[in-house]
Amino acid sequence: MVYTQSPLAIGLFFTFVAFVLGLSFYLARRTSSAEGYYAAGGNIHWFTNGVAFAGDYLSAASFLGICGMIATAGYDGWMYSIGYLAGWIVALFLVAEPMKRLGKYTFTDALDSKFNSKAIQLTAAISTLLVSVFYLIPQMVGAGVLVQPLLGLPHWVGVCIVGVVVTIIVATAGMASTTYVQFFKGALLLIMSTVVVIAVLVRGLSTAPENNGQPYHDFKTMQASATLEISEPGYTVVAGLESAYGEAGFVKLSKAGQESIWQLNKTATGYTLEETLFMTKLADGTKMFNGAAKEEGAFFPVGHIKELRMNGQEVAATGAVGPLAYLSALKDSTIVLWGKKYIKEGGTTTTIYYQKPTPGARVLRPGLKFKVDNATGLQKFNFISLMLALFCGTAALPHILIRYYTVPSQAAARKSTIVAIAAIGFFYVLTLFLGMGAMTNGVINLTDNNMSAPLLALSFGVLLFAVISSLAFATVLGTVSGLIVAASGAVAHDLMDNFLGMQMTDAGKVRAGKIAAIVVGCIAIYLGIVFEGMNVSFLVGWAFAVAASANLPAILMLLFWKKTTAKGVAASIMVGLISSLGLILISPDMWVRYGMLPGDAPIQFNSPALISIPASFLALVIVSLMTQKDVPVVVSDAAEA
Amino acid sequence: MGHGPAVKLGKDNASGFKTRLGVWMFVLYTIVYAIFVAINATSPKSMQNILFGQTAAVVWGFGLIGFALVLAVIYNHLCTKAEAKLNG
């Protein structure tokens, strides 16, 4: 798709970035101690911290990834919202207060509080570093996605802008600036998303969605005989029934030198031909969109309702509706979704996007993305494994855990978690309307669904788009800041200070953290460029699986099993880390990244949590039982508030 | 290098109560979440049934999000009460 840049959008974007940087430089003057850098001095108010939690958590994955996935796969995308929110229950009920009680700056501090073990310091720091980097990838990909329509810049430039700005933020002020950036961003994201959802409901549903004053594309249907004689004049068949296209259920036609691909639907007398969209990647790497160069804008946005029904009547438009009536009308209607097929001819690969009219009730239940209908055992395993990772991952994310050290008490840790649950839960309700709104308002870019929410905002005018896109960019900035603080803490505090025992002054610790932040920032920039094009929420699913496998068993067993030993904790982290990362690296989706066929991958599931989490628990129990003489004699039960 | 908390914390006599309460509430929510995942995995078509004018899947989704918030508020209320009583 070709986007037109608006000076307003560009101006707003730079205003946001300038505000974030200004806040960082202002707060940097107050951050001279290690406590200030890593834990904002432990004096952030619980409400501010709660909204900042939401800011941290509502990352590119939530705002861009989930909305994009709902826009193309319906309810299955919303399953991520449900799973992510459920994870906060683990954080609130099991982890929040003990983390506050046990830790100082990092998640490793809490794990190591009873043992002072070099093995824990090393393994937990490695885990924090790897999980943070894994979580950074989708954020950077999201940044790259955003700058294309906003500033007209290529993906890699967006990744670099975020990398540089965030590294400056973190290297100047640490956790205090990250917290306030997240607070403002989290609050604004909630407000502006609510505005877009209200606009969606006021517009209502229509079979001919309007996109910022532009009429929706009029999809053509033609008739053809059994021998492919086309009813409309001027069309000649380029690739017919005997070709690779014909075998896949398509036909390639040409009219006045312009090629087009049509979906074949068999009828009693011949075929009905339905218009498709297609992207051709030539042998030299050039990409053509609907048979033309990208700049010509032939590849249009899609998303519409075929038959709209409200209160049992077929209508052309509903007018303004309430949220429940909106979902109810969608459930009773037929929505056009988009299937995807690949055709290879020599060195040319054509991706065809074809219409799939689907009952709304089918869209609003699981099964369009996840293979759960008539699924094999392995497919069900994959689904359950993902839902387990989402449930267990939140309470094991280092950049979330370190936020517990920024508040003054355990009660404040608990209350800030509840504020986070309320804010995040509300936002996840909004994602359903944002995603379904994008699905039915003709705004989806089929080559990259990550932009669905900002493009939905664009359908209401450039001002809303500018604000939402700038906010989404700030979302990435804030989350990446938190992740880099966590990662730099792992290097400077856990590895250099604790594990290696390097003697550093307080200022030296802060300096080490800042240098670590710059290095991690550079790694994140590189990975953000490599992983271009993958759905960001899908990538976050992997980060959750790694965090849940490496960190959560150790945290929970430390809190609830008195026989846990230092070696057990270290073994659990390493087994969780290696098994989850190992399974991801040999998964079908990674096989595609290596340029091979997914069916050739050694394993046929993508989510490792159902294997790696139990393996991590098992490793902890076995090793702890084998090393019982290492259990510390004094275990303090005198908790403090 | 010490690993103590970033700020000085006072003694909390309600800690044991809060831990037990947290575990029970966690178990309760986990059971409901597990049932939701199990239905989706084994009988996804039943999620298309209509409840209160919406698909069962949508009702379950809103229900799980709302249930999390309700449990969180109850948990905070009980914890705050216990802290006031046991910590003076």
Arrangement of strands in the largest sheet of chain B = 1-2
Work out the count of structural domains of chain B.
1
Order of helices and strands of chain B: HEEH
The number of distinct structural domains of chain A comes to 2
H/I helix tally of chain B: 2
Provide the fold topology.
The complex is a heterodimer of chains A (641) and B (88).
Chain A: H1 7-28, H2 34-39, H3 46-57, H4 60-73, H5 75-102, H6 107-111, H7 118-151, H8 155-173, H9 175-203, E1 221-225, E2 236-239, H10 244-247, E3 250-255, E4 258-266, E5 270-275, E6 277-281, E7 287-289, E8 304-310, E9 313-315, H11 323-332, E10 334-345, E11 348-359, H12 360-363, H13 377-393, H14 398-401, H15 410-440, H16 452-458, H17 462-499, H18 506-530, H19 536-550, H20 552-560, H21 566-585, H22 588-593, H23 609-626
Antiparallel strand pairs in A: 1-5, 2-3, 3-4, 4-5, 6-7, 6-11, 8-9, 8-10, 10-11
Chain B: H1 15-42, E1 50-51, E2 54-55, H2 56-86
Antiparallel strand pairs in B: 1-2
Highlighted features:
heterodimer, A: 641 residues, alpha+beta, Sodium/glucose cotransporter, 6-stranded antiparallel β-sheet, 5-stranded antiparallel β-sheet, 11 strands, disordered C terminus, B: mainly alpha, two-stranded antiparallel ribbon, 2 helices, 2 strands
Please describe what this structure looks like.
The complex is a heterodimer of chains A (641) and B (88). Chain A is of the alpha+beta class and 641 residues long. Chain A is built from 23 helices and eleven strands. Chain A has a six-stranded antiparallel beta sheet with strand order 7-6-11-10-8-9. A five-stranded antiparallel beta sheet of chain A has the order 1-5-4-3-2. Chain A starts with 6 loop residues before the first helix and ends in a 15-residue tail after the last helix. By secondary structure, chain B is mostly helical. Chain B has one domain. Chain B has two helices and two strands, in the order H-E-E-H. In chain B, a hairpin with a 2-residue loop joins strand 1 and strand 2. In chain B, helix 1 packs antiparallel against helix 2. The longest helix of chain B has 31 residues. Chain B is elongated. The chains are: A alpha+beta (641), B mainly alpha (88). Chains A and B meet through helix 2, helix 5, helix 11, helix 13 and helix 15 of A and helix 1, strand 2 and helix 2 of B.
